[in-house]
Design a protein that fits this description.
With 363 residues, the protein is α/β, with parallel strands linked by helices. The chain contains 17 helices and twelve strands. The strands form two sheets. It has a nine-stranded mixed β-sheet, sandwiched between helices.
Length: 363
């Protein structure tokens, strides 16, 4: 089983994907690469001597079987670069991750219709609403929304995808031992339990330190056929993602915003440089030359609900709502609310989670 050698390489924190790829390409087999001697590696033209020596200093403490067992015991799935089902688009970038760790059902997502959304962590109300509007236009299709599970535009993108019956992939800048930011915990749970997948190139114990976020961004854009930038200051991670999109030969799209907002300065620079302006879902489809057919969705059934049931459905969104909270909003009696919630569960509109809390049914 070769997977243990991929996890062994991934467990050495000082290695980057480029170094591992060089070894794999040279030897043509990950097991051979792992078992190669330091003198073998020094035959590889252009390979850093310092990195090679550091690698061997760390390697002596790594047991491949134990690294694989460690990952599997945490319920984490593993996808390696040599797999036939490694994502096609990601394989095309210059420095693809050699190992992907993921939770959720990555292959329930349509990897042939992937669209990234990136933007400011401190996005304005208008910026968030614009992203929601565009994703809503794309709802109930087989498009997969990709983002970075950060606060701001990322979180809104994932939330909107789930609300609009779209699969979504969150790419994180740490291993699965960390949930960052903690405010995205409920999104992690949604994606891991039916709404898509959470993906990382980092071994479970690797922390979300600063330099890993730009590295994460190349996977967000690399998985995607195009990237929509919601808001971006002149010096921002979103602008890094935009440049990565162009380097990877993908379609770059920008949502215009208020000209006096610091977070739109980067947007207008990108637009002046030739990015496609988008204000609605149709603009995105045209830019990517996608012909999309709407799919039936459970949420669409809500149009035939009576007034009180529709009100309950509208209140229950992506984040779980408790019985008491729903009752305060609706003003319904305990008995009537219980009956209606039970009927909605049986109809497949909502699901009960965490005791007396409810969410819209996962699609």
């Amino acid at each position: 089983m070769k997977t243990k050698f991929w996890t062994a390489f991934a467990s050495i924190e000082q290695l980057d994907s480029t170094f591992i790829q060089r070894l794999y390409n040279y030897f043509g087999d990950i097991e051979t690469a792992w078992n190669a001697s330091i003198s073998d590696l020094k035959q590889i033209e252009g390979l850093s001597v310092r990195k090679t020596e550091n690698y061997f200093a760390k390697k002596k403490d790594v047991n491949p079987e134990q690294t694989l067992e460690f990952v599997q015991n945490k319920g984490i799935n593993i996808l390696t670069y040599d797999s036939d089902i490694y994502p096609f688009m990601l394989r095309q970038i210059s420095n693809p991750p050699m190992t992907l760790f993921y939770k959720g059902d990555l292959f329930s997502c349509n990897l042939d219709r992937t669209l990234a959304f990136v933007g400011s962590r401190r996005a304005s109300f208008n910026g968030k609403e614009a992203v929601k509007s565009i994703i809503s236009d794309l709802g109930n299709t087989d498009i997969t929304i990709v983002s970075g599970l950060a606060a701001g535009i990322d979180a809104v993108s994932h939330e909107s995808a789930i609300t609009n019956n779209l699969k979504t992939i969150g790419v994180i800048a740490s291993g699965f031992d960390f949930t960052y930011p903690s405010s995205s915990k409920y999104l992690y749970e949604k994606m891991e339990n039916g709404c898509g997948a959470v993906v990382t190139e980092y071994y479970p114990t690797f922390e979300p330190i600063k330099f890993r976020f730009p590295q994460r961004n190349r996977i967000v854009t690399g998985l995607s056929y195009g990237t929509v930038v919601g808001e971006a200051a002149m010096k921002s991670g979103a602008l890094i993602s935009a440049n990565l999109t162009l380097e990877q030969g993908r379609e770059l799209m920008c949502i215009p915003g208020a000209i006096n907002n610091i977070n739109t300065e980067g947007i207008y620079k990108l637009l002046k440089d030739g990015a496609t302006l988008v204000t609605r879902g149709e603009d995105v489809l045209n830019a990517l030359n996608w012909a999309i057919v709407k799919m039936p969705a459970k949420a669409q059934f809500s149009q035939n609900l009576d007034e009180n049931t529709q009100l309950i459905f509208d209140i229950i969104g992506v984040e779980p709502k408790g019985f008491d909270e729903i009752q305060i909003y609706t003003g319904l009696s305990t008995e009537e609310l219980l009956v209606r919630l039970t009927e909605m569960e049986l109809s497949g509109l909502i699901e009960q989670v965490e005791g007396d809390r409810y969410i819209r049914a996962r699609h």
